[in-house]
Amino acid sequence: MPISDSSPERRNLILISLAFILYYAAGGRFHGGEIRFFVVNLQFSKPAVLGMFAWVLLFWFALRFYQKTHVVYRAELWAEIMRGGVSRSLSVRACRLAKEQLRGANRTDHFEKKVSAQDIRPNGYLGISIVCNFSNENGVIVHQEFVELGGVQGLAYRLREVMSHAITGNAVAEHLIPYVLFVAATLGPFWSQNA
Q1: What is the pLDDT of residues 76-111, one digit of tens each?
Q2: Model pTM?
Q3: S-S: 12 plus which of 61, 78, 169, 182, CB 3.0-4.6 Å?
């Protein structure tokens, strides 16, 4: 059964991680000092070497996957989030903050215009920036206000969007899940003893 994947690095990491997880979840052990393959006449008298090779291979595949994807993941995730638009609750909050910023700057000329949140972008590790457009009665944008949500609010929004896109989007499945499987595989010797 061939497993097709556009990224061989992702495929290799997922397959070897799943093999490790299956081995530890099923209580796999090497008994005795030999391993024999029944299909071909092949026998190993040092199973520890095979085990070390498997661990080296696991970490090598993780390194290769990291090298190929560590820059791409964040960009793809935010591209998915931005394609989804600004959520209703965030739009209301951003428009309210945009009006407060106008009031604080003594700019009441645009305060009564129709305001809508249009764009969202990451700002640092915790914050987000939202573009709020103030439009006249004809729908023409007469002013843009940039709203910053940082700290707990920015983090809460990011977590909510990541959780939402973990279910509906591809970026998490393609870039984050292989790391989750890798961590589960490397912790196999610990969690398998408690199972």
Answers
A1: 777 777 676 667 777 878 888 888 877 766 666 666
A2: 0.61
A3: 61
Q: How far apart are CA 115 and CA 151, in angstroms?
A: 24
Beta strand 42-44 pairing with 35-37: antiparallel
> Are the beta carbons of 87 and 164 closer than 8 angstroms?
no
Instruction: Report which of 155, 193, 129, 180 is spatially closest to residue 17, judged by C-alpha positions.
Output: 180
Half-sphere exposure of 135 (CA within 13 A, CB side): 12
- Single-letter amino acid code for the residue at 163: M
Dump the DSSP string for 94-135. HHHHHHHHHHHTT--SSTTSEEEEEEEEEETTTEEEEEEEEE
DSSP E strand stretches across 32-175: 35-37, 42-44, 114-123, 127-135, 141-149
